[in-house]
UniProtKB/TrEMBL annotation:
The keyword Nucleotide-binding applies. It comes from the Bacteria. SUPFAM superfamilies: P-loop containing nucleoside triphosphate hydrolases (SSF52540). One of its GO terms (molecular function) is ATP binding. InterPro entries: AAA+_ATPase, ABC_transporter-like_ATP-bd, ABC_transporter-like_CS, P-loop_NTPase. This is ATP-binding cassette domain-containing protein. The keyword Transport applies. Residues 15-252 form the ABC transporter domain.
Amino acid sequence: MTTVKTENKQREAVIVIRDLKISFGDLHVLRGVDLDLYQGENLVVLGRSGTGKSVLIKIIAGLLQPDQGTVKVLGQDVDQLNSRELDALRLKIGFSFQSSALYDSMTVRENLEFPLIRNVRNLSRSDIDKAVEEALADVGLSQTINQMPSELSGGQRKRIGIARTLILKPQIMLYDEPTAGLDPITSTEINNLINEVKERHNTSSIIITHDLTCAKTVGDRIAMLLDGRFERQGTFEEVFEDSNDERAKQFYEYNFVN
């Protein structure tokens, strides 16, 4: 495994995963995963479809229980938390779903208000309005505030989904296939937004993708998931340009040659 960059060893790890295993019947998805996410880092988890990338972040968020191993998020062992403690931890984790997960019957404003009203008490109307306006400004879509999700493009829905996540000011962001189904220009906009979110809000992020352009653009570090384990970790160049691993070469050629 490629050695993690030295400077990360002097930064706080906000997620620590050790010997993580999970199977579904006879399908062994994660086979002993070790991974750290450091404060202020964009970490890309890269792998082909069906390799367990999305399973990993669902375990981090406490949505799935592993068969073995530990996951510590912000110093807390996720598997040991009760439901109240887990709910409190989840407020510090922003989850950007592949589908954007907007409520079709709500306007953009109502979609962004929903997590505030549900999770933060004693907010005035002006507090809510200000938070919504700031979140929309962060993703460059202030003009969509009264639109319905059906009136938005795929890229706009992705941005609104990220805005709804940011409105609770999470410390950690989990992005699940953020560029899936988007054209190259819109994908570039989403990649740039992920970098802007990190710089503006000092978030620590895991980005799940099989898109190498996304990985190269947003990843401070890449962790390649192959056969249920992280076989290679490092910068994009360390993982690919210096790689003699035939599976990594095939992945690279599929994205950039074919």
